[in-house]
Amino acid sequence: MELTYLKTFREVAKRGSFTRAAEALGYAQSSITTQIQKLEESYGAVLVERFGRKMRLTMAGEALLQYADDIVRLHEESKEVLSTQSKGTLTIGTIETLAAFFLPPHLQAYRLSYPQVNIVIQPGNEPVIIESVKEGALDVGIILDPPFTDPELHSCILREEELVIITSPDHRFGSFDKVQVEDLENESMILTENGCTYRAMLLKVLQHNHVNYTLSYEFGNLEAIKQCVMYGLGIALLPRIVVADAVQKGELIAVPFAHPDCKFYTQLIYAKKKWKSKAFTGFLELVGGANHQN
What's the structural domain count of the chain? Predict the structure, then answer.
């Protein structure tokens, strides 16, 4: 509140009149008088004195005016700096899949617009990322999940990610247009790490439909999974973006997994109470997270 009083005080000093200051600021003259009185009470000094119809600053008023000019100037500078802030650190939590196959082109484009922002990528699974965003440990989370909502978070669906069953080129699924859950009977499965959302979906669907399978391997590394599938050690469920290059080269076959629960989306989340700097807003706009927020 005292910042407003200081601005009023500067205007009074500039105009040499409460009346003209009131006209310039759009206040009632009584409001100007009250603000100056409160300022004098705060500083314990008389700031303005009248000589007939004239008004002039006291010695205390002259001294305060210099500080008032500096305070108002610094306040305006701080607003300008914060409104155009393009420095600092942006911390993004995401899973390996999106860190490797979704984020890189966006990070490249972001670097061109905000070269002075340091970007930190924190790997994790979806529950850890969500909790870290809520706690403020992460600025942004990018997750792969069914449509996600939380009362504490803004969430935005960026795009759907098709999940596919990948096999070696000589596998029987090579002739399939799509794979149904019953087609996985007695297959050797190579799974992602525990905590992966699409792994959990697959296991739930297999159990619900009483489909027998063999768990051959579990890996926390996508490249290891792809290599094992190439060598015929089993099949795996992965997002198509992970295997697109290998499929194009003929090293793998990718067949859509047809199941109503198999609807996964890349989604951006951040806390509703998060302060948005220009650099933060720029990232949201770049990846499409500034639109369709929940």
Answer: 3
Q: In the Cβ-directed half-sphere of 126, how many Cα atoms lie within 13 Å?
A: 23
**CB-based burial label for 211 (10 Å; 0-12, 13-18, 19+):** middle
* SS3 state of residue 64: helix
CATH number at residue 128: 3.40.190.10
Query: Computed from CA positions of residues 267, 273, 277, 278, in that sequence, does the dihedral angle turn out positive or negative?
Result: positive
Q: Beta strands of 162-247 (E only): which ranges?
A: 163-167, 187-192, 213-219, 236-239
Q: Does 258 reside within a domain?
A: yes
The phi, psi pair for 177, rounded to 5°, reads -80, -30
Q: How far apart are the first and last CA of the chain?
A: 35
Q: Are 247 and 184 contained in the same domain?
A: yes
pTM of the full predicted structure?
Answer: 0.69
pLDDT level of residue 76 (50, 70, 90 thresholds): confident
